[in-house]
Amino acid sequence: MSPPLLQVNDLKKHFPVKTGLFGRKSEWVYAVDGVSFEVARGETLSLVGESGCGKSTVGRAILRLFDITAGQVILDGQRIDDAHPSTMRQMRRRVQVVFQDPFSSLNPRMRVRDILAEPIRNFGLAKSASDLETRVTALMDTVRLPREALNRRPHEFSGGQRQRIGIARALAAEPELIVCDEAVSALDVSVKAQIVNLLQDLQNEFGLALLFISHDLAIVEHMTHRVAVMYLGKIVEVAPRREIFAAPKHPYTKALLSAVPLPEPGAQRNPIILKGDVPSPINPPRGCRFHTRCPLVFDRCRTEEPVLRAAGSEQWVACHLDALPQG
Ligand code: SF4
To answer: What CATH code is carried by the domain that includes residue 97?
Structure first.
């Protein structure tokens, strides 16, 4: 079996915050607190959870937009969390990103032609000026935008078209992994579906791996291979798409999925309403972090932190409930 393209081992990212009079007292936000997972070549892994659960911080750590607190990020067998800048340059080419808001991530003063040419030039991928031009026009074809639009600027496009430009810019670097950070969240329903279809087509065509970070489980259900569910800086369940949507094991996953609409008209899931709000990541609860909201909480949950354990051949769950491993 070939090794995974991406391995994340016990990743932690804690941010300092100043509190108190004159900001003297330092506390820590435990944004990501011991997260491990793998992404295979050509696979889509979706990282899901409510806003503030740490999923985007995981994505940014993989892109090395900041230094991590602890753990390892390994791309194709090579650590990138502490890589030397010269190694990091090649690594950056191999891992690209598509952000939620293409308008703020695309330079409004640049024409599309220059936006797409920039990564090709930066990574030295074009052999000549004509090769550069060929690559730029091919990218427009790939994301199904008209070539004539190369001379326009981002504000002249719709939201969906701008996201296509963002995807084309990511593809320009010839990556193996694309981190899609809420990449379709800001789009209308029909446009969302078009962009998701495009990402799937590109995955098939180029063998891309996708880390799809999203709070929208209805979209995830249609396009992912596996799902990792995060709550308050931890992964609480990982499973293939079919298993997690048909038979979620963790009480938090069950609550999240109960809010996802069923495709059949008129059909409804039984909604599970969680009490309270997500606790602060500055002072997360002891034991199971979900225990303050879990409808099945019992004494052990308040003191002992559950670890991920097998609950099926490919399903992993962090919960003390004894019934789980039967899965
Ligand atoms: Fe609920 Fe306890 Fe399982 Fe946490 S460990 S999800 S509190 S039952």
So the answer is: 3.40.50.300
